[in-house]
Specification:
The structure holds two protein chains of two kinds. Chain A is mostly beta strands. Helix content of chain A is 0%, strand content 53%. Chain A has no helices and eleven strands. In chain A, the strands form two sheets. In chain A, strands 2, 4, 5, 6, 9, 10 and 11 form a seven-stranded mixed β-sheet that branches. In chain A, strands 1-3-8-7 form a four-stranded antiparallel β-sheet, with no helix packed on it. In chain B, strand 5 and strand 6 form a beta hairpin. In chain B, 0% of the residues lie in helices and 48% in strands. The chains are: A mainly beta, B mainly beta.
Amino acid sequence: KAGVTQTPRYLIKTRGQQVTLSCSPISGHRSVSWYQQTPGQGLQFLFEYFSETQRNKGNFPGRFSGRQFSNSRSEMNVSTLELGDSALYLCASRLGHITDTQYFGPGTRLTVL
Amino acid sequence: DAKTTQPTSMDCAEGRAANLPCNHSTISGNEYVYWYRQIHSQGPQYIIHGLKNNETNEMASLIITEDRKSSTLILPHATLRDTAVYYCIVRVAQGGATNKLIFGTGTLLAVQP
């Protein structure tokens, strides 16, 4: 079974632009979570989607948003990019029950210039 | 804030067992202990999890103390490819169907030849 896939793997943007990242969960998984990893803050939870609904949100500004489609694929969007948004963005999926294990994708490396 | 405490770094000789400790003294009765590892700039890889009993799989063993306030991840025969940051996580459950992982700083395990 294929793992979690994320596209693109690498991305370079300039300040003020917006960006959309995509995540395809493991087949049959209904929940997708997003995390941001930076050297200074480590791995931080952004939000989780389950059955197309946002179920939980981390402490990030409104510039960070996401959505989930009926096939469980998810996208996250960052508007008005800042230099500090440079990070590895990770997506994780799980089947759906609260006790299910989360499996991570390889991440998207975003660099903001 | 992370609910776990881990040593910042550890060394292990190749072929020997690596024992990674984790303190989670405030763990609640229905919270699981999860272990993930992250090889440089890749997505975190799930290793093992447990509630109160010791667990073993093809990758590692997890020993949880009887009071559940600490645990140890054991890699029985460490190889150079086991060099990674290892995260011990107490999984936080919110609401009825949400799940987020709170990562601490982890332990950098360096396997030496």
